[in-house]
Please model this.
Amino acid sequence: MTSAADRHAVLSHDKDRRVSHVVLLAVALAFPMLKVAWTLGGSGAADEVFLTMGIKSWPDVLTGMFLTDALLASVVAVVVCQLLPVGISDARTPDRGAAGWLTALAVTAPPAFGVIVGAVHGPAWGIAVTLTAYALRWGRAIGEGDGAAGWRGKATVVTGALSLLLASALPLVALAGCFDGHAWAPVLVCDIDTGEGNRRGRVVELNRTGPGVVGWDLAGREAVNGVNCAASGNQQVRAPWWRS
Model:
């Protein structure tokens, strides 16, 4: 028979997952538009970027935010890792044969996310993601195991509170990433022809087309074709919101 403590732990895990799902969905849908609008200086620029590139550019912006913001990538990795099942009851399956698969998933998921983050942002970030994800998943696993109910209950409560805190911090981290003035895509220096002759200018790359790129001209504030491009060496487009 399932005890009241076990039922409370299951309900707590369900609440954590629902909150994490909602937060991740909000970040995925709303923040790419906010990132482009603030970085390029207005909603009109964001409209033109997405109209020029199509809806397929939406995940490109989201991916670019993760690749250029180490803190955002790390928090997202830990939150996603927390959504994976920890044990049999967490997976909602009576099949005990799934225990080996779930154990392998619990062991490999944190380092897998750590490797992904570490490969992009450096080993320190990868190690931090791995250890944080392991600690939170270990706390959840304790709530499903046997032992002193009081100790397990405290561990479950602490882990649940930390998971909710992390999920609640995700929108704030993403918001800071939207307002940091840092481009989500490579910033290049290209030859641009807008009908008034060629000039060199900085553009945010939107897509590569043959020998050149389609990009956003930062000076002319319009989508242009650029050729003979080179990396600008600086991804900063404007001053961060907190310094402007």
